[in-house]
Amino acid sequence: MMNYAKRGAALLLALVFCLGLLPPAGAEGDTITIHDASGLLKLAQSCTSDTWSQGVTVVLAADISLAGTGFPTIPVFRGTFDGAGHTISGFAWLDKGSKVGLFRTLGEGAVVKNLILDGVVAPGGSQSQVGILAGENHGTVEQVTVTGDVTGDEDVGALVGVNGSSGVVRSCTNRASVTGNTNSGGIAGRNEGMIQSCTNLGEVNTGGNDAATNSGGIAGRNTGTVADCTNHAAVGYAHTGYNTGGIAGIQNGALLRCFNDGEILGRKDVGGIVGQFEPYVTLTYGEDPMERLDGALASLSTLMTQLSGQIHSSAGDAVDDISAIHGSLSAIQDVIHGTGSDFNTDTSAAADQVYDAVQTINGAMSGLLDEVDRLTRRASADLDEVGNQLTALRKGLKNLTGTLEDSLSDTGDSLSSTLDALEREHSGLVSELRQIADETDRLESFVKDALQAAARLDLAGILDAYKRWDVGSIDFNGHLSRISGHLEAMGSDTFHLADRLTTLWQEAGDEMGDARRDMDRAARALEKALDALNGHVKDFSQGSVEQLRVVNSQADIIEDVLNGYLDTLGDKGQERLDELDGHLDDISQRVDQMTQGAGQTNQELHATTTAIIGQLDEARKAIVELTEVPEKTVKENTSAEGAQSGPGRVVGCRNEGGIQADTNVGGIAGAVSPELSLDPEENLELDSENLLVDTTALLKAILYQCDNRGPVTAKNECAGGVLGRGEVGAALSCTSMGPVGADDGSFAGGIAGLSRGVLRSCAAQADVTGDSSLGGIAGEGRDIADCIAMTRIDGSGERLGAVAGWADGTVSGNYYLQEKAVGIDGIDYAGQTAPLSFGAFSALEGIPADFLTFRVTFQAGEQVVDTVEVPYGGSLDPAAFPEVPSDGGRYGAWAPFDHNHITRSLTVEAVYEDWVTTISSGGERPLLLAEGAFSPDARLELAQRPEPVDGAAAYDYQITDGAELPDTVTLRVCADGLRGSVRAALLQDGSAVPIEAERDGSYLVLTAPTAGTLLLSASGSGTLLPWVLAAAAAAVLLALLFLRRRRKKTNAAASV
Fold this sequence. Notes:
The chain is α/β, with parallel strands linked by helices and 1056 residues long.
């Protein structure tokens, strides 16, 4: 009995120990309430198992600080975490790693809600999938607010690093700043699921990160759906970073009803809603030649069996023929499968080599483009200077021609020959520099086309691009060598020029003083400009040597790979075709033998043999198709129906923020084009099996019913109110009201800067500025239909139009308000563009109401003081202007504007300046000064009456000012030369009313109204009038003497 008791006690003790090994909480259906940091730490320890939290509900009962606790992360959570409105603060993660945040992973079924989280997450190491709340989310996050800072490399988001395809982030707010290299967003770094009704208030990549790519106010990269979200924060840094957007940096999913009013900055592909809009691609495949061949061979085998039975009785040796035929069929199948395998292997290997080479060139292009741009910009001014000085020298020589003595004519001829040589070298220099810029553009276009072709494993397309852009003729080193030659020759010619000018002046003596000075000055300026050009070319050679080496070596690799691939393909293809033809001929001979042996009287036998021959033909056709490059067809979905569902669309979005970048800048989208930097295998998702079939790619990239109200500015080129540059896609029913400018370049439009897609039913009201290719709808476009333009064009170059600067596609049904610009490139084409008066324009169906409402908004800083509506072409009485708000005792006024003819809405800003304390009646020594608080526009007018009043000199004076004047001011009257006491009076109602006056040096000081008649007299000197007249006469005389002396100096300088 005692033994049983001992055994029972031991068992009980063991059970107790086992219970101690279980997690602190957690079983399906459990609810855990956490009050402090230790409770969160226990939760983190329990969640190292990916199943423990399933069915668990965690509720916070208090605000919790994790500062100084060394809190790790919660590894995996699949339950419900309810913050109950509480705050978790002090969370920090600075260790190495990826997939980090308060939660590393929120699994499917997880819910995190009603939480405020403050933290700093800045891991080292790989630094991907980084968020303050979670590294990755596959569950639901709602009503969560984060503050703090998050930093990482890839997939960096303030809430979550990656929101997976099943993830939902709803009604969340970010106030944290975000810094990352690739895929950085205010809510998620990368979104594959749903982000809805979220708000971002935290800056994203505003610190000047050169490596920043794909930065967005909500998501850095979006392949899912972002709906009803708002960004109020700045995204990006001036002239730095690629693919920057107010909502998404890059996307091919869906952006629906989103809003941005933050400032969006970057270098290239920058938009108020999305930086780069990739088209969504749907692939459909044609019949596989391999399957077709297999089907033909299978049918052929069946027919052969049938034929064998039919002729068995009449052809004793048919067994041998059938066996031989089956052997040939097996051999054919082996050859076919070998051909497909070799083709795939060769194609894949060649495509990989070409892709690597093109990507290497692409990597060098950015630096090369910068160097070429720098050379072109610097050399342009110097080349102009060289041309101007050569013209000046030629002009000087021409003026001398008639005055040169016969003895000097040979020197003049020699000088003319030297100028001829210099002008030839100058033309050569200009040509070489233009060719460098042209070849850089060609190389950039080839890289783009080649990457797109490589993405489809289309080696024929790569070869076509290589030939189309004539890459083999690109020779930067040759141009640099020739430029050096031109500069060397010009240096030698300049030396001879100086020598011959010296000879000419020595022989001519002093007779040609002015001409000598002008020509010597031109020669020195020419030499200086050539020295500067030499420096710029040397800088370019040194700065681009590595990029040029990369471009040349990789271009050679591409050419060698393509030629080698085509040679191999041709040799192998012909070898396999010869082998197949041999087997097919054997089958035909065997069939002929069998049919001859069986006779022609059997109709069934005849039908079978005919079918066999037909299947042989089918097999031959399939074999031929196997050696052909599959045809790839690209189509686009540009319909309004396509904007109603699915990915590849930006619908109902609005931007009110300012958008600035160097290239490809849009109020809604910076660029609509495929991303070229991705791995080609992933770009179109073509695997080796699909390479043998014809493929149709359906692209969808639709901007639908989007609205821009912010200014759009490109430093270089491609600025549009809706779209900066569109290689594909469509903008449908979009509007834009805001200025659009390409400051130092071209391609700017009210809707699109440059569009090779579709622009339909869009409306623009904009002031468009730039150099060339400027248009009310598109700077340059292709298909433009049913659009409305109310734009003013300001350009110094060519291709300027009220609808488009240029268009080369289908253009129809476009209308514009008749002001100054006209149609397309200054011409209206019937049925394409038509001008309308304001009355007819305002009656157009579908014109936005805001286009017809003109408001003058008076604004002081952020404060809107008043808004006044005016009709088109109307005026606004300055008396109706609102009062300028005070600003710390400074004078305020409304900035000047044309208030007599208002044709656009405008904002008038309050301008503040310090008050002017003293104004004068004018002159070097003013006769009258007024002291007080005056605006900068205040004036003091003084006029002497011709006759004295009551024996005193009389002066009418008046102070005028846009600002309100006081009742009285302090006046200072010049009293130089007066003796005795001076008396002052004001003329009021025809009588002199004495006023007190005191001497202050040479001025008499008194207080008087801001306008009136001043009477002055002095005892012992009669009236003041003679003295005042004498002083005035003296002042006039001094002024005349000064002007005369200055004129003499000017004339003397001009004669030098």
